[in-house]
Amino acid sequence: MALTGIFDSHSHYNDEDFDADLPQVVEMLRQNGVCGAVNVGYNAAASQKARQLCEQYPGFFWYSAGIHPYDAGEAANGDLDVIRELANDPRCVAVGEIGLDYFRDLCPKDRQKAYFEAQLSLAEKLCKPVIIHTRDATKDTLDILSRHTARGVVHCFSGSAETAKELVRQGWHIGFTGVVTFKNARKILEAAKVVPMERLLLETDCPYMAPVPHRGKRCTSDMIAWTAQAIAGLKGVSAQELVDAARANTLRLFGIESNV
Ligand code: NI
After folding, report:
1. Euclidean distance between CA atoms 215 and 210, whole angstroms
2. What letter does residue 156 receive in the DSSP assignment?
3. How far, in Å, is the centroid of ligand 1 from the Cα of 154?
4. Which of these, 79, 129, 193, 243, could form a disulfide with 152 (CB 3.0-4.6 Å)?
């Protein structure tokens, strides 16, 4: 399955899991058909590191800045200012990942909501897209989004086909990870089926969420091939055609100019 032009719309090479061997990983990615990736921030330090990687690997890594709902609990007073400063950088392609997560009890709901709303407003002010993380919080997420004009991608989608349809209707893109290859993925595949080709993004969320047959290992962006293969059949296209469409969608959504 030798695919080319893979662009990972959501990765975390800013995670410490890649500290020891990132140059080798990037070389491996280039050799395996990956042409670029967005490193997504999840707190102030991770967002700063994502910018650093963008500087180290120009034309290969881009980045976003944001405070994830898990990290909102421990965010310090000045952290939103750090995100504001980073988000102003033209190389910062989005505000994110931001949102609500009621699956793990790491931050009180009110505080999650306050950080979510503040960062949606920031994206609106800067006219940048947002990267949304939502887990076990669909209703509150949709409520908050309905009060905002910011748009972008709902990443690592795990909701129903019905929710996917509603988000698409409201103008959102939907991102799918290796979770679509897991045994219990029927519901997510139903959702992937109803998302129009021009709104679908492919992502890894690496180092997490490695697709089958790599499940449990450290994930890298070349593994998008398995995710693409799982969804392509539902859309009546080849894995390469899906990778090409998803790349075009990602570059358009994030305003990335790339020679690929
Ligand atoms: Ni992520």
Report:
1. 5
2. S
3. 11
4. 129
Q: Could you tell me the distance, in angstroms and rounded to a whole number, from the CA of residue 125 to the centre of ligand 1?
A: 23
Ligand 1 center from residue 35 Cα (angstroms): 19
The CB density around residue 31, as the number of other CB atoms within 10 Å, is 9
In the prediction, which pLDDT does 105 show? 80
Ligand 1 centroid to residue 11 C-alpha, Å: 6
Burial of 5 (0-12, 13-18, 19+ CB in 10 A): middle
CA of 138 to the centre of ligand 1 (A): 17
User: How far away, in angstroms, is 150 Cα from ligand 1 center?
Assistant: 19
Is-contact 177 153, C-beta < 8 A?
no
- pLDDT tens string 107-121: 999 999 999 999 999
Q: Confidence class of residue 106 from pLDDT cuts 50, 70 and 90? A: confident
Q: If you measure from the C-alpha of residue 10 to the centroid of ligand 1, how many angstroms do you get, rounded to a whole number? A: 6
pLDDT of residue 257: 84
CB-based neighbours (< 5 A) of ligand 1, an ion: 205
pLDDT, tens digit, for every residue of 4-63?
Answer: 999 999 999 999 999 999 999 999 999 999 999 999 999 999 999 999 999 999 999 999
Task: Please tell me the predicted confidence (pLDDT) of residue 260.
Answer: 62
CA distances from 84 to 65, 74, 161 (A): 8, 18, 34
Strand partners, 135: 101
